[in-house]
Amino acid sequence: MGSLYEFSASEYDFAPCRCEDLQQVSDRKPQIMLTIDEVKPLVKKPQIAKTLACSPRQVDNYMAQGMPHQKPSPRKVTFDSEEVLKWYKEQFGLQRRKSLANN
């Protein structure tokens, strides 16, 4: 009796591949995929509060005013810090006690 992985070629007959088929595959445009460098890290509410030099409760108020955030579940809120800083500067046009650019 043969090995567990032995098989005969007749069990797995494949049609021969034509060169035209290979050319069509190589002419396809690659799909756009995100790399690790392009994925923005999301931060939680305490980190945004620290960045904006305010309390987490004030972050809730800013969210009610339209601060960009994602809510993947009812109890979890995440923020893209670049979008938040851009929104904050557009809304208030000034910086808080701590420099927003340094965080």
CATH architecture of the domain at 33-103: Orthogonal Bundle
Structural category is alpha+beta
Order of SSEs = HEHHEEH
Integer-rounded radius of gyration: 27 Å
Can you walk me through this structure?
- With 103 residues, the chain is α+β, with helices and mostly antiparallel strands.
- The protein has a domain at 33-103: Arc Repressor Mutant, subunit A, CATH 1.10.10.
- It has 4 helices and 3 strands, in the order H-E-H-H-E-E-H.
- It has helices at 19-27, 45-52, 56-64, 81-92; strands at 42-44, 70-73, 76-80.
- Strands 1-3-2 form a 3-stranded antiparallel β-sheet.
- A hairpin with a 2-residue loop joins strand 2 and strand 3.
- It is elongated and about 65 Å long.
- The model has no long low-confidence stretch (mean pLDDT 76).
Q: Would you spell out the secondary-structure blueprint of this structure?
A:
Layout: H1 19-27, E1 42-44, H2 45-52, H3 56-64, E2 70-73, E3 76-80, H4 81-92
Antiparallel strand pairs: 1-3, 2-3
Please give a handful of descriptors for the protein shown.
4 helices; alpha+beta; Arc Repressor Mutant, subunit A; 3-stranded antiparallel sheet
In short:
This protein has 103 residues and is of the alpha+beta class. Helix content is 37%, strand content 12%.
